[in-house]
C-alpha cells in the first residue's frame, strides 16, 4: 500500500513537471514564431474583434455591478468608523488596481480561453491543422501568434474600459443611494487616484491576456481526439487560465506593492 501511494505521488509529480515543461516549450515556440515572418494580419484583426470588442458587454456588466456593490460594502464598513468619505477614493483605487483587471481577466478567460481551445481543438480533430502543415503554413504563426498578440493588446483596453465603468457604477450608487454630493464624489475620486493605479492594472491586463491566449491555444493544440477530447481541453483551458491569472495577480501585486 505504501509503495502504491508513493508511486502515485511520483507519477503525479512527474506528470506535473512534464506539463510545465511542455507549456514552457510552447511559450518559447510562440515567442520565436512571433519574431519571424510571415505575419497574418487578417487573423490578427479577427482575433482583436473576437477577444476585444465582443468581450466588452460581459466586462462592462461585470465592472458596473462590481463597482456598485463595492461602494455599498465600503460605505457599510466605513460607517462603523465615521469614515464614509473614503468611499469614492477606495472604489476608484480598488477597481483600477485589483478588481478591474482580475475580474475582467477571469470573465475574458471564461469566454475566450474556452472558445480558443474549442476552436483549435476542433480543427485538430477534423485534421485542419494537418492540412495547414500540408500547405506549408506554420500552425503556430497562423493560429497562436495572432491570438496571443491580440489578447495582449486588447486586455489592457478592456481593463481601462472596465475601470471607468466600475467607477461609474460606484458613482451612481454613491449619488443615488448613499447621498453623496456629485461634485465632491468626483473630486475625491480624482484627488486620490494616481497614474500608477491605472497603469498597474493595465500591465496586469496585458499579462492576463497573454495567459488567456497561450493557455487556450496550448490546450487546443494538445486536445485529444473526438468530442470528449475537445470538451476536456476546453474545461482545462478555463480552469488553468483562471488559476494562473490569480497566481500571477499576486506576483504582480507583490512586485508593484512599493510603487
Describe the secondary structure blueprint for this structure.
Layout: H1 2-34, H2 41-51, H3 56-78, H4 87-125, H5 128-134, H6 139-176, H7 182-192, H8 195-221, H9 226-256
Number of strands: 0
Order of helices and strands: HHHHHHHHH
Shape: globular
Task: Please give the alpha-carbon distance between the first and last residues.
Answer: 52 Å
> What is the number of helical segments per DSSP (H or I, 4+ residues)?
9
| Residue-averaged pLDDT | 89
Helicity level, as a percent range? over 70%
- Give the low-confidence spans: none
Structural class: mainly alpha
Output the radius of gyration: 22 Å
User: Strand-residue fraction?
Assistant: under 5%
Number of domains: 2
Keywords:
single chain, 259 residues, mainly alpha, 2 domains, 85% helix, 0% strand
Amino acid at each position: 500500500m505504501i509503495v502504491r501511494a508513493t508511486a502515485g505521488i511520483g507519477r503525479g509529480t512527474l506528470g506535473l513537471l512534464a506539463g510545465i515543461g511542455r507549456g514552457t516549450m510552447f511559450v518559447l515556440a510562440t515567442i520565436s514564431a512571433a519574431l519571424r515572418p510571415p505575419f497574418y494580419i487578417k487573423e490578427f484583426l479577427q482575433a482583436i474583434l473576437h477577444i476585444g470588442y465582443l468581450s466588452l458587454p460581459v466586462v462592462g456588466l461585470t465592472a458596473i455591478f462590481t463597482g456598485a456593490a463595492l461602494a455599498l460594502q465600503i460605505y457599510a464598513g466605513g460607517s462603523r468608523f465615521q469614515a464614509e468619505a473614503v468611499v469614492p477614493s477606495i472604489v476608484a483605487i480598488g477597481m483600477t488596481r485589483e478588481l478591474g483587471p482580475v475580474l475582467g481577466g477571469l470573465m475574458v478567460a471564461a469566454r475566450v480561453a474556452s472558445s480558443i481551445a474549442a476552436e483549435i481543438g476542433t480543427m485538430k480533430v477534423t485534421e485542419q491543422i494537418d492540412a495547414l502543415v500540408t500547405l506549408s503554413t506554420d500552425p503556430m504563426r497562423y493560429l497562436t501568434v495572432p491570438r496571443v498578440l491580440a489578447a495582449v493588446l486588447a486586455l489592457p483596453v478592456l481593463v481601462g474600459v472596465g475601470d471607468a465603468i466600475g467607477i461609474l457604477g460606484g458613482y451612481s450608487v454613491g449619488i443615488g443611494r448613499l447621498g453623496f454630493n456629485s461634485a465632491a464624489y468626483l473630486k475625491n475620486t480624482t484627488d486620490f487616484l494616481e497614474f500608477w493605479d491605472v497603469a498597474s492594472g493595465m500591465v496586469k491586463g496585458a499579462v492576463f491576456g497573454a495567459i488567456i491566449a497561450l493557455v487556450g491555444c496550448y490546450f487546443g493544440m494538445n486536445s485529444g481526439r473526438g468530442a470528449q477530447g475537445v470538451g476536456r481541453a476546453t474545461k482545462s483551458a478555463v480552469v488553468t487560465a483562471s488559476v494562473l491569472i490569480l497566481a500571477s495577480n499576486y506576483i504582480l501585486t507583490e512586485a508593484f506593492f512599493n510603487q
